[in-house]
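Quick log. Single chain, no ligands specified.
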Amino acid sequence: MKRITLYPLIALLAAVSLVACDKSGDETPEADFGTVQVDVSQTTARITVSSPRVVAEAADRTIREVGVRYRAAGGSEWTDITAEKISADTYSALIENLAPGTRYDYLLYLATDANRYYGKMQSLTTDKVNGILGQWRLMQWHEMTELPFEVRMSFSDDGRFTLWQKLQSVEWQRFEGSYELAGTILSGKYDDGQAWSAGYDVAVDGNKMTWTNTSDGSDRAVYVRENIPGELQSLRTADTSRAISAERFL
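-> predicted structure:
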């Protein structure tokens, strides 16, 4: 999950400036949010607001609600999320069920009994599923955590993957190929033209990656981010060409 922190407008001119929107459509700067922090993942965005205040010359400056209005970038349908008050002057709103690698527009707002003050339009982008980039070790297969075999993989940003496996053999076998990511669905093909046995719905959470077979939901594998040992990286695919016809993990 990546984090973006915006510091107070008064200090660094980076906070969200709000406008009061009344029935006449007038817009005047009448509030600020203090510090705004945005944390995004593949499918969620949490927006935390600290020390918001109404600065308008209004009879009622008591904040009754803080929230977020959002939509897919350029869309026409807005959704409002009310922020939860987590301390005396801090509010947090969690937006869920977002699409990976997608930009969203959002406006923060404050509400008193008399008015709602909207902020300037901001944008955020959810993480792409290419969080798969890097090196991984199989930790769990189906419900098994004590595995009788070993599997390691690496994914690069040029669309290439490398698979190291020690299944029925006492020696490691290395395979290479290309992968394709369509949304959250991952598929691949070995360099000899053989496709993976299935496509997988991939979810990455920090250093953990979960694959679910798109045709069989009970077929799940969990990987942890871990460097590939040097002796495996130096193992050439040609050294294991005799095993190309052997069973492959994917």
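Confidence is low (pLDDT under 50) at residues 4-28, 238-244.
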